[in-house]
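Severity: low
Component: inverse-folding endpoint
Summary: output formatting inconsistent between runs
Steps to reproduce: submit the following structure tokens with default settings.
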């Protein structure tokens, strides 16, 4: 169920009203929230509800077993290892079945071995369960945290179910930790300012998705990435910049909607984007972009691999980012995207260490430092933007065509609408002024009486929806 539909509004309004009526009765509210979560997910794909429940049972059961065997270290380690392997198997089957079959078929064919047994018609037609990558990572975080902290009591089955299936975040994040959910289940945030921030976040998400992301996708990005050879080099470059803004507005717009909806329900979900295109280094970029995923990879993969303390930091970064790329899909282009980010992070860390060792702090003139910061920002932004080509293009051949149009300059081909440049500028401007606009709007709303606030919110929401097309494209991260 898409947040930007009438169906969701008809679903959410009664959930919000009845939910607040039951808020003081924690047990009743949790039961109501579970029903709402399952109804929401069933509307997206009824056949996948058993899979969601299976992931819940797997994590609840693993934690319970580790709690019962808390003095048996070997059993606890075996339990968490099997739990992690089970999650890898679930993700691997649904995300990489086709890739593995094609690869195995190619290898066996070269050896003149039979391959018919690899292919099953019904399995080949399976649709990827929406939200799987997100709720499996959320469940794993719960289990691994309990393994690391055995003194923390395990949650009940119903508590784990309400956490993993929480409908504002189940489709595309943010990936929650326990601290982001359970404290607000029992003691919700319910101040007037929280409600106004929730509404402001929803308006922000609508504007980013309905106006900016949808316009850029329909008027230049699809044209460039579908048929790059018919476009001029200028158009291809603008299309690459446009996709950088589109994916930011699309995904951060979804996150704003999810966080805003959560805020209206009394939950303070974590920020998922913090002006990532203002980053002056790749390390800083990943502290700002898809924060819930990057912090998950750091805490549950990079640090256990050794982080910066054991083994090779460069190797650990490369492995982490390769797996991060693989998390997005089984295509070679995702591996290249993740591998290049890992390599870039390794170079970034090495350069930072060199500066710390050989350039005394305070020895660089202010003007030179400002110029270096500008260059660092330009390098980071263009590195990230160019790598989005691997993320968006359908295959490696299309990637090659796009890079070819950029490197081998040519003015022949279709142009681009001038309005797309303004849309790109607005997207970049949101990085600089977005927080000020957000807080200014909230302060303005707080000074108004409730009836006027409602009128302002309704008018702005209607204006934003009228600025967009009649049908809004699905969110990009729904496919992951």
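Observed output (run 2 of 3):
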């Amino acid at each position: 169920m898409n947040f930007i539909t009438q169906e969701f509004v008809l679903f959410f309004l009664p959930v919000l009203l009845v939910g607040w009526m039951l808020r003081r009765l924690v047990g009743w509210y949790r039961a109501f929230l579970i029903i709402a979560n399952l109804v929401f997910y069933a509307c997206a794909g009824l056949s996948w509800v058993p899979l969601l429940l299976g992931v819940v049972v797997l994590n609840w059961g693993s934690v319970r077993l580790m709690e019962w065997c808390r003095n048996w270290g070997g059993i606890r380690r075996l339990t968490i290892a099997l739990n992690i392997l089970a999650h890898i198997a679930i993700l691997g089957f649904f995300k990489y079945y086709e890739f593995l079959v094609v690869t195995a078929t190619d290898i066996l064919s070269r050896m003149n071995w039979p391959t018919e047994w690899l292919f099953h018609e019904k399995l080949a037609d399976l649709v990827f369960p929406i939200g799987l990558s997100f709720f499996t990572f959320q469940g794993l975080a719960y289990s691994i945290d309990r393994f690391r902290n055995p003194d923390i009591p395990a949650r009940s089955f119903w508590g784990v179910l309400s956490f993993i299936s929480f409908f504002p975040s189940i489709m595309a994040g943010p990936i929650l930790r326990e601290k982001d959910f359970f404290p607000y289940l029992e003691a919700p945030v319910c101040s007037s300012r929280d409600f106004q921030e929730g509404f402001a976040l929803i308006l922000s998400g609508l504007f980013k998705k309905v106006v900016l992301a949808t316009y850029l996708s329909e008027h230049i990005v699809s044209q460039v990435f579908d048929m790059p050879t018919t476009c001029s080099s200028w158009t291809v470059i603008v299309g690459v910049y446009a996709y950088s803004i589109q994916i930011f507005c699309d995904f951060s717009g979804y996150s704003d909607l999810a966080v805003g909806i959560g805020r209206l329900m009394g939950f303070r979900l974590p920020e998922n984007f913090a002006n990532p295109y203002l980053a002056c280094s790749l390390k800083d970029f990943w502290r700002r972009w898809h924060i819930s995923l990057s912090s998950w990879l750091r805490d549950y993969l990079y640090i256990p691999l050794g982080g910066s303390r054991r083994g090779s930091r460069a190797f650990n970064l490369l492995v982490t980012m390769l797996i991060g790329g693989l998390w997005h899909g089984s295509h070679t282009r995702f591996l290249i995207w993740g591998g290049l980010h890992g390599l870039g992070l390794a170079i970034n860390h090495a350069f930072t260490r060199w500066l710390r060792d050989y350039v005394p702090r305070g020895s660089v003139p202010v003007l030179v430092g400002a110029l270096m910061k500008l260059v660092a920002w330009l390098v980071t932004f263009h590195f990230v933007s160019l790598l989005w080509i691997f993320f968006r293009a359908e295959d490696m051949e299309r990637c090659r065509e796009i890079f070819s149009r950029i490197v081998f300059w040519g003015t022949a081909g279709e142009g681009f609408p001038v309005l797309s440049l303004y849309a790109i500028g607005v997207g970049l401007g949101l990085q600089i002024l977005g927080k000020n606009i957000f807080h200014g709007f909230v302060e303005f709303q707080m000074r108004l009486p409730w009836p006027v606030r409602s009128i302002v919110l309704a008018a702005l929401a209607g204006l934003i929806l009228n600025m967009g097309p009649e049908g809004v494209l699905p969110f990009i991260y729904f496919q992951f």
